[in-house]
Specification:
about 300 residues; mainly alpha; MetI-like fold; flat
């Protein structure tokens, strides 16, 4: 009787959270799916069923193709940059150098601000102005006689989206560093010492022992960074505004829904985003549950 009472109390404690998640997460997801299957365009709701027509038309949309291509470029550069820089910084801090706490704080500071703030700062740093109007990084390169590095950044035709990965890497690489540093600190010293006794060099130690042991951390970082890159919106808007050549699905969804009042297509894009994020999250959750079950 006591056990049932405790279970009832526990259920009542989490009931508000269950209701809130059911309504404001899964309820809105269901509503978005419903709208995506209609022809709702304009301020007056229209709930006539059109099936998968919106999805088929979206796949033929040239602007959506540009958004997907930009997302792919952004994701590759963002994820690779964060993983590489984060790992290098973690290895550097793992050496037990003096002032580690200061460096760790400096690396983590960018994570404490939002993408909007990052975008505002980097919009000035990546000012594409040329000639006598140089500023930001271009002015720095000019002062250091590194003129070959001066460029128009996000205004570069076709590949301007690549420049927008720079501020994202700057902000999130410190977070990845913290993940890798925690992973490095969890590796027993006995393994390192045994490898060194067997004659392993530093490169061999990291390649054959440390890096393989960091695979779970790398997977976690990959999933987190991947879903962030798919949903990126505020950084793009803060740096470049609404430009077709720099479109990503989230920005296209915003302009379609709230500027064009095409709610059915906006819901369709949102569904594509949901599916894309699920591709990253669901396999990771299944892997985590499977690993915990084995333990």
């Amino acid at each position: 009787m006591k056990i049932n009472r405790e279970r009832l109390l526990a259920f009542l404690l989490v009931l508000p959270s269950i209701v809130a998640v059911s309504v404001f997460v899964y309820g809105f997801i269901a509503w978005t799916l419903r709208v995506s299957l209609t022809s709702w365009r304009g301020l007056t709701p229209t709930y006539d069923f059109v099936g998968l027509r919106n999805y088929l038309l979206l796949l033929e949309d040239r602007r959506f193709s540009i958004a997907l291509t930009n997302t792919l470029i952004f994701t590759v550069l963002f994820v690779a940059g964060c993983l590489i820089i984060g790992l290098i910084m973690a290895i550097f801090l793992d050496q037990g150098l003096p002032g580690e706490g200061i460096f760790r704080s400096i690396y983590l500071f960018p994570m404490a601000i939002s993408f909007i703030v990052t975008g505002v700062v980097w919009r000035w740093l990546m000012n594409p102005a040329m000639g006598t109007r140089l500023s930001g990084l271009n002015l720095l390169f000019d002062s250091l006689n590194l003129d070959f590095l001066i460029n128009s950044w996000q205004s570069t035709p076709r590949y301007g989206i690549a420049a927008l990965a720079l501020p994202a890497v700057w902000q999130m690489s410190g977070y990845v560093m913290a993940l890798f540093l925690a992973g490095l600190r969890s590796i027993p010293d006995e393994l390192r010492e045994a490898a060194q006794v067997d004659g392993a060099t530093t490169v061999q130690l990291y390649r054959h022992i440390i890096l393989p042991l960091l695979r779970p951390v790398t997977l976690s970082a990959l999933v987190i960074l991947g879903h962030i890159s798919l949903k990126v919106f505020d950084l793009i808007i803060a740096v470049a505004g609404k430009q077709v050549q720099l479109d990503v699905p989230a920005v296209y969804m915003w302009t379609t829904t709230f500027d064009g009042n095409f709610y059915a297509r906006g819901a369709t894009i949102a569904t594509f985003l949901l599916v894309g994020v699920s591709i990253f999250i669901i396999p990771y959750l299944m892997y985590s549950v499977k690993t915990e079950t084995k333990l």
